[in-house]
């Protein structure tokens, strides 16, 4: 018999002796009324697992990962603070730890900021994936469900869990409006080249376009193929490149 309230048996997820549904489903607590209403109205993609709405004993979202059952208690910042002040949070977390081997407190991102890509949230989850861990959750329902599906997939041992600390320490290329325009205007101009050109002319697109071909060729990232592409938009009779 499992030491946790949630357990898997015969392909089903069980709690308190009752089957909640198939173990490959994503279980959503009916007390999340806004999410339940959204699920009822949304057109769910075929690749998503079944979404089962039911009254969960503990947690707002529950699913079975390769590492076992995961139970997530979701909180906005105001709810987190209020629950902590009333000592409700401590009780909920104690129950959560007793309910599943992986108990997670999820703080919704829309309480902090907006527009955080799911890939970043997944890396935060990987970094903090342990018993009683805290992760960030997307604040919109349309992003929350795909995030939970991805989260279930990554909760397993393997090198993929090291991605948050892997790779170079070099900062990402700083993209600007000017460099984005150059990247879209000229064939052969990738992100790195566009940033180099934009930086050369102080992010002033007018100065970039008024510059001569010879000036462009002084930029190491610019090659003759880019100049030929430029000529299709900015004809130049004074200087011709050797093909």
Give an account of the 3D structure.
The protein is α/β, with parallel strands linked by helices and 243 residues long. The chain folds into two domains: 6-165, 3-Layer(aba) Sandwich (Rossmann fold); 177-233. Helix content is 39%, strand content 19%. It contains ten helices and nine strands. It has helices at 33-41, 77-85, 88-99, 118-127, 141-154, 177-185, 191-200, 205-210, 213-217, 224-233, and strands at residues 6-9, 12-15, 18-22, 26-29, 51-54, 61-65, 68-75, 102-108, 133-137. The strands form two sheets. Strands 5-4-6-7-8-9 form a six-stranded mixed β-sheet, sandwiched between helices. It has a three-stranded antiparallel β-sheet with strand order 1-2-3, with no helix packed on it. A hairpin with a 2-residue loop joins strand 2 (12-15) and strand 3. The longest helix is centred in the middle third of the chain and has 14 residues, at 141-154. The relative contact order is 0.09. Mean pLDDT is 82; it is low at 238-243.
């Amino acid at each position: 018999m499992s030491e946790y309230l949630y357990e898997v048996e015969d392909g089903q997820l069980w709690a308190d002796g009752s089957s909640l549904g198939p173990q490959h489903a994503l279980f959503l607590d009916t007390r999340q009324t806004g999410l339940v209403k959204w699920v009822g109205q949304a057109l769910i993609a075929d690749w998503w697992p079944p979404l089962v709405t039911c009254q969960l004993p503990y947690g707002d979202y529950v699913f079975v990962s390769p590492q076992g059952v995961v139970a997530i208690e979701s909180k906005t910042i105001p709810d987190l603070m209020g629950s902590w002040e009333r000592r409700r949070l401590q009780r909920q977390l104690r129950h959560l730890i007793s309910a599943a081997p992986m108990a997670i407190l999820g703080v919704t991102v829309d309480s902090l900021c907006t527009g955080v890509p799911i890939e970043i949230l997944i890396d935060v989850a990987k970094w903090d994936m342990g018993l009683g861990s805290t992760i960030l959750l997307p604040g919109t329902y349309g992003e929350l469900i795909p995030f939970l599906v991805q989260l279930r997939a990554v909760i397993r041992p393997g090198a993929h869990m090291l991605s948050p600390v892997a790779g170079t320490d070099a900062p990402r290329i700083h993209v600007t409006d000017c460099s984005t325009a150059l990247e879209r205007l000229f064939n052969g101009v990738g992100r790195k080249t566009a940033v180099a050109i934009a930086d050369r002319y102080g992010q002033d697109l007018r100065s970039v376009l008024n510059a001569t071909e010879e000036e462009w060729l002084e930029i190491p990232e610019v090659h003759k193929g880019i100049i030929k592409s430029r000529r299709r938009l900015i004809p130049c009779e004074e200087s011709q490149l050797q093909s």
